[in-house]
Amino acid sequence: MxxxxxxxxxxxxxxxxxxxxxxGFVEHLGRHVYDGIHEPGHPTAGPDGFRRDVVELVRExxxxxxxxxxxxxxxxxxxxxxxxxxxxxxxxxxxxxxSTETNxxxxxxxxxxxxxxxxxxxxxxxLGTRGMxxxxxxxxxxxxxxxxxxxxxxxxxxRQDPFGVEMWCLGNEMDGAWQLGHRDATDYGKxxxxxxxxxxxxxxxxxxxxxxxxxxxxxxxxxxxxxxxEHTYDDVDLISCHAYYEEHDGDLASFLAxxxxxxxxxxxxxxxxxxxxxxxRAEKRIxxxxxxxxxxxxxKWATVxxxxxxxxxxxxxxxxxxxxxxxxxxxVGGLLISLLNHADRVxxxxxxxxxxxxxxxxxxxxGDAWRQTTFYPFSLTSRAAQxxxxxxxxxxxxxxxxxxxEVPVVSAAATTDGDxxxxxxxxxxxxxxxxxxxxxxxxxxxxxxxASGIWDxxxxxxxxxxxxxxxxxxTNETAALSGSTLTIELPAVSWTVVTIS
Length: 501
Ligand code: AHR
Known about the structure:
By secondary structure, the chain is an alpha/beta fold.
């Protein structure tokens, strides 16, 4: 049986676990907003049209900041279409997803929904078909108190108090040819710098996220980050990373090790940002907003998106509705471990997305809402990861992967809030359990240990409409403390959270 030995010591912190690490993402895409979170007439919908069963699940998921309204959608979006009397709002063609946008939900309605779910707003501005003036107008509308045209318009539209949005994204994936208004690094860098400077002139406390690469395989990756930061370093606070993973051709071992790729991605972007810092002799450090990450069977959906007839622009079509398996959930757990292990530089992250669209929550119109397998590693980590992320000294057997070579059979992250320790473990072995021992002698007296997680005899088991609770967290009864040593046996293809007090 493979084995791994870990040593934890509170004297070796990585950094604080910031709540924004557990953010989400809601895009106007498919059935995410319409027929997802917003379905007037649904038996659980309030007078505002928002489904309360979905609200409850989002609260349970434990998402902090939620990025909105896109995604690719934002690069063609006029924010003004989504404010004012609902019945007067225009219907528009959404070129990103070949859909019709009805604008029944806009900034005010979305903030009302955020108030219900208890999350904060992270707003993206359109730097695709629009630019700095429109971003400033939106900022004035959202954040100025009163006495200006846009703040008065906001009050007329029903909201006296400003939205007070702190986190702002300067466009979306501007390096991608699929993006409306796509441009090269220099042109985007100049546009982002000009926009950021203007926005900070209005409100110097904003946290601005400049677009990094859409993924690490982009031919411009690395150079893009360097050039964009050379233009924007003084005026922005974070740079974005986006990454989606899927199992290719039955290669489960590589898929489970996706966290290895995320580690390398983050390390490369940190190195590039610090290179620009060195050249500029700058004091400040740029942090990372990993504002799109998840498992996404992109290769399947890439063609479906193009299947609409030229004159077919449906409202809320079924798009990107991946159904997630146990293996997908274990991979999501591994990605959360990677994010925690970079808590010093990843200040914010957004699971992409939340409902129906590559989401941990699924709904049927007029029917049920349920948790996908991926719901569990996120909700359990969001709850258990508190205080400070710790360095994990890991001595583990290696397991082979086609994509990443030999990787440690176990990936691990740990946090402590002073009272207790939370340990997050992923067993990447596709066939065998792994025995883990953990040296906790640096923590003093320990009394209780509990462990739960996701695994199954069938790693491809899913939750769906017919069987919504096929996969739920299980208790791992093997976890035991002997003095200051923890032992636990991790099932093959599993993700586990251990809490020790
Ligand atoms: O999350 C789905 C899409 O993935 C987003 O719209 C885009 O930013 C990314 O390419």
